[in-house]
Amino acid sequence: MNDQAIQSQAVGASHPRREARQKVTGRVEYIHNLRLPNMLYGKICRSTVAHAKIVSIDTSEAEAYPGVELVLTGEDIRKVMPDPYFGVMFHDQPVLALDKVRYVGEPVAIVLSKDSNIADDACAMIDVQYEELEPVFDELEALGASTFVHEELKPGIPEISFLKGVRDTNVGFPYQLRHGNDVDAAFEAAEHVFEHEFRTHPSAHVPLEPPVTVAEPTGEGLTIHTANQSPSFVSYEISRLLGWPQSKVRTRVPFLGGGFGAKLWIRLEALVAAAALLAKRPVKVSLSMEEQFYTITKHGATLKIKSGVDKDGKIIARKCNVFWNGGAYADIGPAVAFHAGMTAAGPYDIADVAIDSLSVYTNRPVAGAMRGFGHPQLIWAYENHTDMMAHELGIDPLEFRRRNILREGAEHATGTKLNTSAVEQVLERVAAGVDWGKPFDKGEGTIKRGRGFAIGIKASIAPSTSEAIVRISSDGSATLYCSSVDMGQGSDTAHAQIVAEVLDIPVERVHVVHPDTDVTPYDTGTLGSRSLYHMGNAARLAALDAKDKLDQLAKEVGAAEPGSNVPIWEIFARKNGMPVGNVVGTASFTPPGHVPPDPMTGQSPDITPYWMFGGTAAEVEIDTETGRVTIVKLVNVADAGKLINPKIVEHQISGASIMQLGQTMQEKVHFDFGQVTNASFADYKIPSMLDIPEIVNDLLDSEEAEGPFGAKGAGETGSFCVSSAVANAVFDAVGVRVHEMPITGETVYRALREAANDPLGED
Amino acid sequence: MTPFEIAMPTSLREATGLLDPEDPTIRVMSGGTALMLMMKTDVFHPTRLISLRKIEETASQMGLLPDGRFRIGGMCTLAQMEHNDDLAAFAPVIRQTMRMLANVRVRNVATIGGALSHGDPHMDLPPVLVALDAIAVTEGPEGSREIPVAELHAGYYETVLNGDELIREVIIPAQDARRMTYLKCTTRAVKDWPALGVALTGVFEGDTLEDPRLVIGSVAETPIRVDEAETVIKGRSLTDKVIREAGEAASANVETIPDELGSAAYKSQLVRVYVERALRAVANQTV
User: Looking at A354-368, B35-49, B221-235, which range is the least confident one?
Assistant: First the structure.
């Protein structure tokens, strides 16, 4: 612990994570440990079929089982939530299935008991009769299917109200971007046209703490204790469902054992809230590790990408068709289609661009936000594509990128001008990270070596808002109230550093109050690497406001003359008669200037408050007899602006790259007719220490003009380019291209045999 | 999870008496590493678990027998086997295997008896014990049997053990100058269930390999001893050509089962490659 009383520097120093000691000694609060008096445990009875009408649900045996307090089905939920469909974009997801089930694992009923084992046993006694419907699992098949996951689209927010009443389609949201002139004409004029298709698979977030929620009726209100990344939204959405004032729904979130996007918006909160109100007792639902796999996944996608290149090796046209497998409910999927779709042209300067990015409903578990928000999938496609074009044109991949890169001041395909040269710097640094252009040992015999790199770009979410309150106590210590969730990324520490810097007090003198909607003000959510920029600014402005008020107070009590050294306690004592009291500063930060993109063309002069840039280079070693790829080294380059806490930033970058490396090399959710068949850590393998190579993180020396002290978010940046860097390195080593993740030994070995005109048998 | 009974017998004989061959919900538990996973995933719902933790101490002991064979009590943990220097001197392949097998936490509690009687085909130890020609000595109501480990596995999670028969000990015959190795291949994480295990032992007379035992684990329902490949190498010097032929013979004759770790065709390729590598490894071993 850093117990120093006086610090020289708040912002820019690697202060230890403030919760670290509590965490490693097991003292931190997690909702999994919360037990309330009189509390019931809920266990969820889940659909065993992928797509079916519910004919009947017989709960009588479960209800009669000794120890069972209550069994609820979808119809029961209506007693407290008249229209029990939730969702951040579409109001399409029932709290418990109504009429129909749309994926294996969908909650159909909940059993409440004082004993979770009894609730579990009783779940198995619920008899659900289904009339099976044709399911659809593949995102491309879903486009032309005659079976529909939803009969009618149910848009829930004004921006997508044009989809209201749309029927008989599995396309949930069609994003499109048109930049420059007619892209097909540009292809006609191009010297070379390249077209490639890539696929990515659904992977799982698997935070070590699975989703968990406790709901507690409190007389006239409701308290929701939950592991959630968006507490403000939870209160908003639950009050909407209940028809209550938001002020009566209190959501509080302590620490999270990992989030990665799995705990955004509504997970268990609506179900547990309804159950608690109906049972008139506190109710807790803790998902098992297995249930996580049925609850939320990362999007699998099919990505088609076509580019036209002129005789000088300049990309002049690009067309992208992206199909996101969104699973049975929209969740934030349409925003993934939109947000990732808008950067499908990559960090390249391309005159004519057409992008269609569709979120597609299928009978799979819901796909939602995951670290990188669709960008790792898209960058996988466009950075494979970039290397493939370079090789086919006989141009060095670095040189090819230099010719096409988006330079400072140039207009991105979204119509927004790039305000930084960071992307060029990332490119040069990432190539230098593997000594690109210098001699390299390519291996011999059955061991071949290769290196590759990739660069990527992501816009921040817009519009979004963070609000903060800073309270200065009479001893000069400060308290920050904000709804950012520290889920391991270190936001508590970073925000405390910002407040300490403004108030010029030691970081240890700042207390951070965890999200509690009774006291902490609104925040869009802890997502998309937005907290440091948005909440960082709000905390900074609230601290400034508090400081101004303290200065004002000093003036009022005659302690503000130049050279005054009246201590803070005395300022308060002069006002309040005793050294007690507070000043309270507040701030609400919504980055100014955002122009919503044109719905037909996606064009906007100001689409993002800031850009995120990342690059990764990989060195690999391949056993050509088995195809097994060993990652020797990863070099991550990131633009994180000024570093508030350099060590935390570095951990974020390597953590994100390791997570993406797992999904690149070994993680895949397997389905058998919609049923997840590897829903455990025994069969779903995340990286262990032995799978992690040497990692070098290289952070640009940069400054984000409007960021708090020049900082910006970096939680996702390390995830962007790992997959395509590895794929490019594999190509460099053995000359074969992998079009689908994960890049297993078998995938590579098959590609090698294919290339040798001796394909390996299918089965 | 429905409540169940836990019995704590103090002898193996007493434990077998608590078993009921007709009732699969009654099972013994030694380390519990496999059983607990099955219970957590709702695959197994016991009515009674018989813990072997308190049975006679000899079950957890191992050592050289006067006749030159090595005895390992059925309740010896894999970690005990890993760290026993006498066993490492007797059959070095065991320590070599343990370092690749699961992880420290599993090895600290999993036992040799449990590892064999579970019948899980995706295990590292069974093919090694087959290649060492080990014998499982069992205890049941009808007395004791000696079953070669090579004959123990009857199918996918099936053994020839009767429902009330337990493994008392495993006996490994003297290995003398036999060379041995075990190669493990994983296809997802580095530390993972084996997609393939190749155990090989044999006696070198000069350059030629005599009495080879080549055992393939994890690709099929049981460990498989590959006669066709053994025939190729038996009595021959391990030239590149012979090694390639042996790999080919193993690949052609071992029927592989596709699963999430790999297709059948890919696993056949792995068999070829790892058999060749195992042969090179023993050929290059210094005695």
Answer: B35-49
Quick: pLDDT tens for B143-175.
Answer: 999 999 999 999 999 999 999 999 999 999 999
Structure tokens at B97: 């295997």
Do A20-29+464-589 and A297-461+598-755 fold alike per CATH? yes
- CB-based contacts of B240, cutoff 8 Å, min separation 6: none
The β-bridge partners of B19 are: none
Tokens of A680: 């455990």
Q: Does domain A35-133+208-258+262-290 have CATH number 3.90.1170.50?
A: yes
Domains and their CATH numbers in chain B: 5-51 (3.30.43.10), 62-172 (3.30.465.10), 179-283 (3.30.390.50)
Domain boundaries, chain A: 20-29+464-589, 35-133+208-258+262-290, 297-461+598-755
Find out whether A178 and A720 touch, Cβ atoms under 8 Å. no
Q: Which two tokens stand for residue A175?
A: 């994003």
Query: Which residue of B45, B267, B269 is the best one to mutate when testing the A interface, meaning the one whose CB has the most A CBs within 10 A?
Result: B269
> Per-residue pLDDT tens for B175-216?
999 999 999 999 999 999 999 999 999 999 998 999 999 999
Which secondary structure element, helix H or strand E, spans residue A340, and what is its range?
helix A333-341
Q: Which residues contact A713 (CB under 8 A, 6 or more apart)?
A: A460, A528, A529, A530, A531, A532, A533, A612, A640
At position B82, the amino acid (one-letter code) is E
Is B187 in Cβ contact with A746 (below 8 Å)? Answer: yes
Q: pLDDT at position B1, please?
A: 61
How close B143 comes to chain A (CA, Å)? 37
Give the distance, in angstroms, between the CA of residue A633 and the centroid of all CA atoms in the same chain.
25
- Does the structure show a pLDDT above 50 at A419? yes
Number of Cβ within 10 Å of residue A705's Cβ equals 10
**What is the distance of C-alpha B245 from the center of its chain?**
26
With CB atoms and an 8 Å threshold, state whether B263 touches A746. yes
Q: Which fold has domain A20-29+464-589?
A: Aldehyde Oxidoreductase; domain 4 (3.30.365)
- Picking from A4, A16, A22, the residue whose alpha carbon sits closest to that of residue A646 is A16
Q: Which of A82, A113, A115 is nearest to A98 (CA)?
A: A82
Q: Are strands A283-286 and A127-132 parallel, antiparallel or unpaired?
A: unpaired
Helices A722-734 & A375-393, crossing angle to 10 degrees? 30
Question: Do residue A666 and residue B185 have CB atoms under 8 angstroms apart?
Answer: no
Token pair 């403030």: residue: A18
* A760/B265 CB distance under 8 A: yes
- The secondary element (H helix, E strand) that includes residue B6 is strand B5-7
CB contact (8 A) between residue A744 and residue B188 = yes
* CA pair distance A402, A397, nearest whole angstrom: 9
Chain A residue numbers touching B273 (CB-CB < 8 A): 625-626
Q: Please give, one letter per residue, the 3-state secondary structure of A209-263.
A: CCCEEEEEEECCEEEEEECCCCHHHHHHHHHHHHCCCHHHEEEECCCCCCCCCCC
Task: Give the contacts of B191 (CB within 8 A, at least 6 positions apart).
Answer: A688, A690, B102, B103
Residues with Cβ < 8 Å from A211, sequence gap 6 or more?
Answer: A227, A262, A263, A267, A268, A286, A287, A292, A295
Give kind and range of the element (H or E) at residue B97: helix B92-98
In sequence order, the 6+-apart residues with CB closer than 8 A to the CB of A336 are A299, A324, A326, A359, A367, A368, A369, A373, A374
Inform me whether the pLDDT recorded for A397 exceeds 80: yes
Pairing of β B26-29 and β B48-51: parallel
- Distance, CA of A314 to chain centre: 33
Helices (H), A408-530: 422-433, 491-503
Q: Residue A680: its chain B contacts at CB < 8 A?
A: 37, 41
Q: How far apart are CA B283 and CA B29, in angstroms?
A: 40
